[in-house]
Amino acid sequence: SSPHLVQVRERIRINGQPISKELFSKYFWLVYNRLEETKDPAHASMPAYFRFLTIMAFHVFLQEKVDLAVVEVGIGGAYDCTNIIRAPVVCGVSSLGIDHTSILGDTMEKIAWQKGGIFKPGVPAFTVVQPERPLAVLRDRAQELECPLYLCPDLDAFEGDCLALELGLAGAHQRSNAALALQLARTWLQRRGCEGLRELKEVPPVTEVVGRPVPLAPAFQPTDAMIRGLRDTEWLGRTQVLHHGPVTWYLDGAHTTSSIQACVRWFRQAAFNQDKPHDGSEVRVLLFNATGDRDTAALLKLLVPCHFDYAVFCPNFTEVSVASNA
After folding, report:
1. Highest taxon of the source (predicted)?
2. From the centroid of its chain, how far is CA 105?
3. Taking the C-alpha atoms of 2, 253, 170 and 98 in order, what is their torsion angle to the nearest 10 degrees?
4. Is the Cβ–Cβ distance between 31 and 59 less than 8 Å?
5. What is the chain's pLDDT, residue by residue, as a tens digit (326 residues)?
6. How many domains is the chain partitioned into structurally?
7. Is residue 3 part of a domain?
């Protein structure tokens, strides 16, 4: 997965834990030296940072003999360096947003085309509810690549009458991610022929949307392990609340308009449960940083409803032109 929050080892995890410094160092130099020895003398260049780490991650997973590797694309999908797996078990496309427009294109349809590039012939793929036109692009890509594509039902469909699924990750937007995770996990378990799958009884759909461009995947009763997995999932730096003495930190890595909107909904719910005291004992400070060619003014505009008392901006350069700084 990428990016990392504190240490690069977070990108390559086994059983949820970043690999050790010793293991990282061992495999880094092994891959580096092998590439150095075999590079083309005419075009003597090494893979760029992300490509190198991708090659290294695949090498780690093969050498450590993992049962299952979950690989997140870097940018896009079609031309991403992670997209060399010819026959994955299953593919998933989460909620699409406008990002990396200089590489992926400036519309949701162009971005959907890139994301659909991970589909493979005969390999089931799942996606979540998307706007109509990007979803149609995903459907066309799937047909072109002869990939069976399904739409995940809402998480409510997995909850049945009495089972309320508890998520370790805060925010309403995580419900569609959880539904996608359940479908991906189930596909892998079926492929493995795991026992206990008779527990995964299909639940009839509550509603059927007429004219749906992509067939709806059946919901099912999650296993105890799945229920625990959703509940115990944590991802540091994403909708994370940290209490540190008199200061409470609300951390998130949102950097697109859609993810900032989700972040605002989460923050207001998490921080506005209590009415703001009028004695001045509570002060709201926004710490904001953005990298790359993001439209910071558009992102900041979405944070206005949070009613911050102060804002602190931390640029990525020691010298910043004030004139061009949104």
Report:
1. Eukaryota
2. 19
3. -80
4. yes
5. 998 999 999 999 999 999 999 999 999 999 999 999 998 888 878 899 999 999 999 999 999 999 999 999 999 899 999 999 999 999 999 998 877 777 878 899 999 999 999 999 999 999 999 999 999 999 999 999 999 999 999 999 998 777 889 999 998 889 999 999 999 999 999 988 875 555 455 555 444 444 457 999 999 999 999 999 999 999 999 999 999 988 999 999 998 888 999 999 999 988 876 555 666 678 999 999 988 778 889 999 999 999 999 999 987 776 666 666 55
6. 2
7. no
DSSP letter assigned to residue 215: P
Domain that holds residue 295: 240-313
Residues 6+ apart with CB under 8 A from 174: 167, 239
State the CB neighbour count (10 A cutoff) for residue 289: 11
Say if 126 falls within a structural domain.
yes
- Position 90 in a domain: no
Looking at residue 18, its amino acid is P
Q: Which of 174, 208, 232 is the last residue of a domain?
A: 232
195 in the same domain as 111: yes
Are 315 and 325 spatial neighbours (Cβ–Cβ below 8 Å)?
yes
pTM metric for this prediction: 0.86
Distance CA 51, CA 135 (A): 29
DSSP 197: G
Note the residue count of the chain.
Answer: 326
**Are residues 219 and 288 located together in one domain of the fold?**
no
Which domain CATH number covers 129?
3.40.1190.10
Q: Which of 141, 112, 104 is nearest to 293 (CA)?
A: 104
Measured distance CA(243)–CA(241) in Å, rounded: 7
Residues 116 and 190 in one domain: yes
